[in-house]
Fold each of these.
Amino acid sequence: MYLGRVIGCVWATVKNPEMVGQRMLIIQPLTPELQNTGKQLVCLDCTGAGSGELIYYVRGKEASFPFLPAEPPADATVVGIVDTVHLKSPRKISAPAGNRNPTHKKGKRC
Amino acid sequence: MLIARVVGELTATQKHASHEGRKLLLVQPLNLDGSDRGDAVVAMDAVDAGVGDKVLLVTEGFSAMTAVGRPQSPIDMAIVGFIDHIDLIPGVD
């Protein structure tokens, strides 16, 4: 799994029938220090995460498992909303401070 | 499998039901010389590892699910062992 932040959402009216009704979020991967790393990607969502929230997502075939018995052709899915990140040395990062994108209201649905 | 070091812990209240009851750890994959190998990842703990431990990390779904005993669940990384010691043949990179 990977740590990330929800930075937006995607709407698609024409898509695979198994994906109908699933939310698609744009995710920015993060380092443990919550710095951006790598390129953004689109994930399905099984948790109800909203804009600006800190989440973790799974990649690969396992990304379709939360939706069983449906099998949407997804390769990335948000599977949890992160409350806190405890790091060994520098600091404890709690979600209320780190889990907010200044341009979005926390928990706002796309 | 990869060699990795546990660098932190995550807490998550709202998550997939299959993730309940297991620790989520932030682990940094390592090269043989101990330097960082790519970005840190979130892994499910199958051996009760803690921050600072050097561990064995599986990065593929089937092995991760088997390790934590939860088949058909969205898990793609798991910690499957502690590393006590690594012996390298001298002169081989």
Amino acid sequence: MEKTLKVLNDLQKKGLIKRYVIGGGIAVLFYAEPILTYVLDVFCLLPVEKGGLISLSALYKYLRKKGYREQEEHILIEGIPVQFIPAYNELVEDAIERAVEVKYKRMKTKIVSAEHLLAIMLQTYRPKDRERILLILDEVQIDMPYMENVLERHGLQEKWSKFRRLYDEEGEGGMERC
Amino acid sequence: MKKEREVWKGVKEMGRAKIERRQQLAKLPFEEKIPILLHLQRIAVGISRAGGRKRHKVWK
């Protein structure tokens, strides 16, 4: 993991990515109990190429030269499948801008804030996202005013209210699960 | 009826204890969670392979 993070930091230093932030299952694991995941999801802001294009090709070319191989939609960096996800909307851009700096052993890295992570999962809303939202709400202290602000800025308040209604009605314990 | 109520009380107590345990796990440092993840991957990959699926690998 440490070596993988070093490679990510090097990519940023070399300007192949402008900024990156860890999201997905590893971000959930950072805030909540350890959960099973096989991929390190990396949201990134990429430099704009000539002609205004944004592409992962320069990044992949560099990594291939370094000996890292592609594996389905991932690239295997120091034994860890990494998926680079270019910032695809304003919420993800915001999550990258307001990321939290953390350390893994001696390596500095950035992780999405718990509030942005919840908002992104609410937006993608796959079954595993809903499961993970509940996990975080059970186990993590969320800054609700900040979260409300994120949801409002990205038009997710109504979806959040629906989600709360749906799961608050799930029995006596409200959103608490066993 | 009384017995049922007592069993239910016990079940609720167990549920509360499980939530507390999970909250304790959530507070572990990042460095300590990664070895747990690798352990989970080893278990899951072992089960998948036994079922003939080889899609995932344990991180090195």
Amino acid sequence: MQMSAREAMHLIELRSSPQGHPTYRRVAHQMHALIREVAGHTAIAEAMRYVDFSDVDLERPRGRAPGRREAARRPRVRVTAETARSEPGSLRALALLFLRLGSTAFGGPAAHISMMHDEVVTRSAGWTRRSSST
Amino acid sequence: MDEAEFLDLMGATNLIPGPNSTEMAIHVGLSRARWKGMLVAGLSFILPAVAIVLVLAWAYVRYGTTPPATPSSTASRP
């Protein structure tokens, strides 16, 4: 098997990340060690700054932590969605929605309309379905 | 708002001249809170962009001819 330094860099940095499966994280770590020690390319090994050397077996739960943090943040969004739904005709909800879209929507009319669709059709429908099932 | 209503509004924005997304915002405002909603939605959608463009325009006038800033102004020429 043959690969360029750039390919090795990409593969090892990507596959050593804490979210990865232990089996290929170990392979990525071994590849990095081989490049540095056996092949002697210390400069190339040093250049791979994003290789994650944390312990393979313990990392998996911690790697999932961002997902959990995201879940903890979700209620805030849910509250605004709920208030917007409970009074979709309120001018305040309307102004908040479009101020948010107006300042975050980039990419031209097609992108704007797709984001609006997410907000006024998809999201409100998903919310109704979820709230009616509970 | 359901899918069909949204598509109707999309058809309407394509029929009339002007920027589709802004018209869509105004339509959504109209369907949610009549003419007041129309005004609020339209203004809310446009104002952030107006503010951003004002800041950029001010920066262009102020720093457009400063040597370190010229690359950024040539990169974003209309």
